[in-house]
Amino acid sequence: MEYMREALKLAAEAAEAGEVPVGCVIVHGGEIVGRGRNRREAAQRTDAHAELEAIAQANAVLGTWRLDECDLYVTLEPCPMCAGAILNGRVRRVYFGARDRAMGACGGVLNLFMEDFPNKTALQGGIMEEECRDMLSAFFSNLRAAENSRSVHDTGGDIRYDSGVPDGTDTRKE
Ligand SMILES: [Zn+2]
């Protein structure tokens, strides 16, 4: 909870910056060694996801690519790209908040952690799920409100996010 709360703070920071709110922390021996948040719009980089930023920071802090004593907390279910980095880094455990039915690689669309890779990362979803989902929902409803109030001639500053994240209608079990 404590660490997911930290991840949520980073997600809130992303939202304030106009980014889809996703935040991530990496914990080693009870210390946060990596923090990341979504910076896709500002960076205009496909890979500017919260998890990858947190992993890069943890690598730098610990001086190793091996994260087998690390646990990762992220507010939204990791996508295949980030799940790949998590597996490559041999992260010990992943805790995520909201489910991502569009891009999730931890069961939302597919589950890379069930595959026969040499490294086994433990997975737990639904951590502070409501808070994580609410932050995403609020972001997207603000975005829609802003779009609706904009003049039809104004085509600038359009932010699109294809992941169609939480609509609150998901009743599938973990
Ligand atoms: Zn990702």
Task: List strands and helices in order, with pairings.
Layout: H1 2-16, E1 23-28, E2 31-37, H2 40-43, H3 50-62, E3 70-76, H4 80-88, E4 93-98, E5 122-124, H5 129-149
Parallel strand pairs: 3-4, 4-5
Antiparallel strand pairs: 1-2, 1-3
Helix pairs in contact: 1-5
Hetero ligands: zinc ion
Note the total helix count: 5
- CA radius of gyration: 16 Å
What order do the SSEs take from the amino end to the carboxyl end, as H and E?
HEEHHEHEEH
Which percent range fits the helix content?
A: 25-40%
Ends apart, CA distance between termini: 19 Å
Strand order of the largest sheet: 2-1-3-4-5
Quickly list its features:
5 strands; globular; five-stranded mixed beta sheet; 174 residues; binds zinc ion; disordered C terminus; alpha/beta; 17% strand
Question: Overview of this structure, please?
Answer:
With 174 residues, the chain is α/β, with parallel strands linked by helices. Helix content is 36%, strand content 17%. The chain contains five helices and five strands, in the order αββααβαββα. It has helices at residues 2-16, 40-43, 50-62, 80-88, 129-149; strands spanning 23-28, 31-37, 70-76, 93-98, 122-124. A five-stranded mixed beta sheet has the order 2-1-3-4-5. Strand 3 (70-76), helix 4 (80-88) and strand 4 (93-98) form a beta-alpha-beta unit. It is globular. The model is unreliable at 155-161 and 166-174 (pLDDT under 50). The structure holds zinc ion (ZN). Zinc ion binds at residues 49, 51, 78-79, 81-82.
